[in-house]
Specification:
alpha/beta, Rossmann fold, two-stranded antiparallel ribbon, 6 helices, 11 strands
Length: 262
Amino acid sequence: MNIVVCVKQVPETAEADLRIAAGGKSIVEEGLALQINESDNYALEEALLITEEHDGDITIMTLGHESSEDVLRMSMAKGAATAVRIADPAFDGGDAIATATALAAALKDMEYDLVLTGCMASDDGATQVGVALAELLSIPHATYVTEIEVGDGEVTVGRELEGGLLEKLAIKLPCVLGIQTGINEPRYASIMGIARASKREIELKSAEDMGLDASSVGVAGSATVLEELTFPPVGEGAEILEGTPPEASGKLADILKEKGFV
């Protein structure tokens, strides 16, 4: 089974002191560690587990600048056979649809049974690329996938629904699956794997290589425009109600009445 895993390099922001860059449309990435998108890491691990059981090769692919090759090489160190980086100034500033258009163009000449993506981008919270990619490729898809069982010409997947429900679907191959975090436990790359991957070739593809017109990707090919990034307004701090349970509940009742909730 041949699998393509689409990944994204994102800044680590959990413990960082974030600043919005001049222009108000991005954050200052200077000093931030760059890493593979969290759910993409689970997608890669799922691909590795599937190919270990059913044979096949993994191609790791990203749309990004040269720094994103670190993510590709780490993925090859874990077991991906080949890597593709889609890079062109024409791709800059593209929204999810423009990104999916570029990925779909790269996939059109590749042989694959399954395309895996993360279910969500941790930097902007978007969940659209995988779904849009499936539509552009005219193949079925499912997202928020937490279980995969490979069958003959199809996969049976479990996907999260609201309210703690799990939906079971049988999907014909090829298809696109958006992988949810927690589906597995991503492995670490070995020292030997990292050393070998550092010498491996990464295929570069430009818009021209893929026969894409610049008007179909990047800002020109985007249906949405990022207007501004802002920090949420700072609200009032929490109030701790002191006293015994009856005293605290009485104070809470008074506050609710004062606010007009009861």
